[in-house]
């Protein structure tokens, strides 16, 4: 069964500093990996995804994520954090199939990012 | 495109009452799903559908029913609400391609007293 772990409930960072939100996964075969962001009282918004190719994926709002197959990780990064980045971040994984239960997206428990001045 | 829409935004029920959470999408997506979000639990899949007339159970299906009579609509029914169903519910949809992104609705906050 596939699973996602986000080991940090909360990450605190000062504005202007780099940030990293950690994610590790377990799935059979080559994974499809996603990051979503949730602002207060809103639905989830897609940030970026890794399907294949370059291990460094660039997404919305200046975020990027690095796929590391040997460490089964997909950490979210941003070189310079903004206060407006404060939100709940979810990592998700699914196997590369289009049929039946294998197509389900499994989410981590979320990491709250708090960026302060 | 309105994307994925959900109604109502908020709902309070008494134990034992029934209700239907509505979800609609206008992107012609084959795949639709319902999640519930609880603190510290992330999002858990309740039911999903890969097309009109086809539904299946997710991780936490007990107490919920779904149907998919059209591509656009995917309602979630609570037959007899319980306090354990107090949660925020999200509907999502995506195309059936291999690299597709899932789009989420704004959510319904449900409280069962």
What global shape of chain A is seen? globular
Give the radius of gyration of chain B. Answer: 13 Å
Overall mean pLDDT of chain B: 92
Which stretches of chain A are low in confidence, meaning pLDDT under 50 for 5 or more residues running? Answer: none
In round numbers, the mean pLDDT of chain A is 90
Structural class of chain B: mainly beta
State the end-to-end distance of chain B: 36 Å
What's the order of the H and E elements of chain B?
Answer: EEEEEEEEEEE
Helix content estimate of chain B? under 10%
Classify the secondary structure makeup of chain A into a structural class: mainly beta
The major pleated sheet of chain B works out as:
7 strands, mixed
The count of DSSP E runs of length 2 or more, i.e. the number of strands of chain A, is 12
> What is the general shape of chain B?
globular
The amount of beta strand of chain B, in percent, is over 45%
Query: How much is the radius of gyration of chain A in Å?
Result: 14 Å
Helicity range of the residues of chain A?
under 10%
Largest interface (CB within 8 Å) is between: A-B, 26 and 27 residues
Q: What's the count of strands of chain B?
A: 11
The gist of it:
The complex is a heterodimer of chains A (117) and B (113). Chain A is mainly β and 117 residues long.
Care to describe what's here?
The complex is a heterodimer of chains A (117) and B (113). By secondary structure, chain A is an all-beta fold. In chain A, 0% of the residues lie in helices and 50% in strands. In chain A, strands 2, 5, 6, 10, 11 and 12 form a six-stranded mixed beta sheet that branches. A four-stranded antiparallel beta sheet of chain A has the order 3-9-8-7, with no helix packed on it. A two-stranded antiparallel sheet of chain A has the order 1-4. In chain A, strand 5 (32-38) and strand 6 form a beta hairpin. Chain A is globular and about 40 Å long. Chain A starts with a strand and ends with a strand. The relative contact order of chain A is 0.33. With 113 residues, chain B is mostly beta strands. Helices cover 0% and strands 51% of the residues of chain B. Chain B contains no helices and eleven strands. In chain B, strands 2, 4, 5, 6, 9, 10 and 11 form a seven-stranded mixed beta sheet that branches. In chain B, strands 1-3-8-7 form a four-stranded antiparallel beta sheet, with no helix packed on it. In chain B, strand 9 and strand 10 (103-104) form a beta hairpin. Chain B is globular, with a radius of gyration of 13 Å. The model of chain B has no long low-confidence stretch (mean pLDDT 92).
